[in-house]
Design goal:
The chain is mainly beta. 4% of the residues lie in helices and 51% in strands. It has helices spanning 51-60, 124-130, and strands at 2-5, 7-14, 20-21, 29-36, 39-48, 61-73, 83-91, 100-109, 117-121, 135-139, 149-162, 172-175, 179-180, 185-191, 201-210, 215-221, 228-233, 241-250, 265-269, 274-280, 284-285, 292-301, 309-313, 322-324, 329-332, 335-342, 351-357, 362-368, 371-373, 378-380, 385-391, 400-407, 419-422, 428-430, 440-447. Strands 1, 2, 3, 4, 5, 6, 7, 8, 9, 10 and 11 form an 11-stranded antiparallel sheet that branches. It has a 5-stranded mixed sheet with strand order 13-19-18-15-16, with no helix packed on it. The chain is rod-shaped and about 170 Å long.
């Protein structure tokens, strides 16, 4: 308990308005009323205390109980019997005008000269006392009614308990990533927390909610800082989400922790992109070529709504990949190529395209039927019809055309131009109308596409 002795005086009120502080009443705390001369005189006591000291204590502590001790009752009036004291919290100071009464109540004072009486008062009076600019305790009510009482001493007694206030929760939460691979780590950060009165920060609690369900305890951090961070993890299931919140812990105990932060942080476990279309305009290389240029047709999507790009290369470990796009042209050699969709976080499943070198078809057998020139009575070995048997690269499913050359000498065939004979790959070709006995001929089958 803290006890504060009061400096006391009495304010006198006259009916003829000659009011002021009593020189005779200095050192006396009294309430009384009597007639003097042509007017009635009323005494109202005023006690002043170390208000600055009390207010400073009030900042850190709060009152659990309070009382006023009235000591040295004067042998005036009916002092041998109990009387009613009117006490109030007031605002005013000795030497100024009449102090104002803020809150008041009546209490019984025991009789007997020199006796002391301790009166319990509400703790709210201390709250009111500390809110005034010039607080004081007043005895009496500036009227003719109160019983005649006087005291030589006034003590204000206050039992204090340390004043705690709760900490404040962080005002800002953030995550190092908002979307990532399932069950991988990321960093949760927060700031803006505040300590309470007599309640320093000593840590934080973290809670998690999955897919909009209830909150559960995730972890704790010990620190005195107003900000912090903690390692958390994405949901283990693709498409799953987690939300985080934080509260501030204080040295005054769990009753004075902050509430959970209204701010929260949110993250998703990434879903893989998909590649729905992957094809090339040409997959067969001419037998004499080491590479060709081909156009890619690509299409993909992402369930999370992220942008999808495409990556192309000959190795499944992505070590030689390059970015491509739909309708882009690429140069390829014989072999298998991989195309992966990428959503900025992960690759989806690849599709492959295999490019092969063409095998030239060859004519494995050719026979020709001759005809007799009756005018010369001889047979000339020029072809009237041909029966062909071919060896070709059937796996490529190519279409073929027949072509021929003719020249007046066998040596001249090498420089002669090919002439289209047919686009139909029949094994038997009849071209008797083309044959001229003065020419040499050669036959070729070739694919329409290389």
């Amino acid at each position: 308990m803290s006890s504060y002795g009061g400096t006391i005086n009495s304010y006198i009120t006259y009916t003829n308005s000659q009011n002021g502080w009593s020189s005779y009443g200095a050192g006396l705390f009294r309430q009384s009323s009597y007639q003097k001369g042509r007017g009635n005189r009323t005494y109202t006591g005023c006690a002043q205390f170390d208000s600055s000291g009390i207010k400073n204590t009030y900042k850190t502590y709060y009152p659990t109980s309070a009382s006023i001790t009235l000591s040295g009752r004067e042998a005036i009036g009916s002092h041998s019997s109990a009387r009613t004291a009117i006490l109030a919290v007031g605002n005013g100071y000795y030497g100024g005008g009449q102090p104002s009464r803020i809150t008041a109540s009546s209490y019984t004072v025991n009789g007997g000269s020199g006796f002391s009486t301790t009166i319990s008062i509400p703790t709210s009076w201390i709250d009111t006392f500390c809110s005034q600019s010039n607080p004081c305790i007043i005895l009496g009510d500036y009227s003719q009614g109160p019983d005649y009482l006087g005291f030589t001493g006034v003590t204000l007694n206050i039992n204090w308990a340390i004043r705690y206030t709760a900490c404040s929760a962080p005002t800002s939460l953030s995550l190092s990533e908002t979307r990532g691979k399932p069950d991988t780590s990321l960093t949760l950060s927060w700031s803006g927390a505040k300590a309470g009165t007599q309640n320093s920060i000593n840590g934080y609690d973290i809670q998690c909610s999955e897919n909009g369900e209830g909150w559960w305890d995730y972890g704790s951090v010990s620190t005195s800082s107003t900000s912090g961070s903690y390692t958390v993890y994405f949901h283990a299931t693709r498409g799953g989400n987690r939300r985080w919140r934080v509260r501030t812990k204080g040295s005054a105990g769990s009753s004075y922790y902050s509430g959970w932060s209204s701010a929260s942080a949110y993250c998703y476990a990434n879903r893989l992109p998909s590649l729905s279309t992957c094809s090339a305009s040409q997959t067969i290389l001419p037998s004499g070529s080491s590479s060709i240029s081909t156009k890619l047709t690509l299409a993909g999507s992402d369930s999370d709504g992220q942008s999808v790009s495409f990556w192309w290369g000959t190795k499944s470990d992505h070590s030689d990949e390059k970015q491509v796009s739909n309708n882009s042209s690429v140069t390829v050699s014989a072999g298998t190529y991989y195309c992966y969709p990428w959503d900025g976080i992960e690759y989806g499943s690849a599709k492959t395209i295999t490019f092969k070198a063409n095998t030239k078809p060859s004519i494995s057998a050719i026979t020709a039927t001759g005809t007799k020139d009756t005018s010369k009575n001889t047979t000339y070995p020029f072809a009237k019809s041909l029966s062909l048997r071919l060896t070709s690269n059937k796996s490529h499913n190519l279409s073929y055309t027949w072509e021929y050359k003719k020249a007046t000498t066998s040596a001249g065939l090498s420089s002669a131009s090919w002439i289209s004979l047919s686009t139909d790959a029949k094994p038997t070709i009849n071209f008797s109308s083309l044959i001229d006995e003065t020419y040499y001929y050669t036959i070729l089958q070739k694919p329409l596409k290389h």
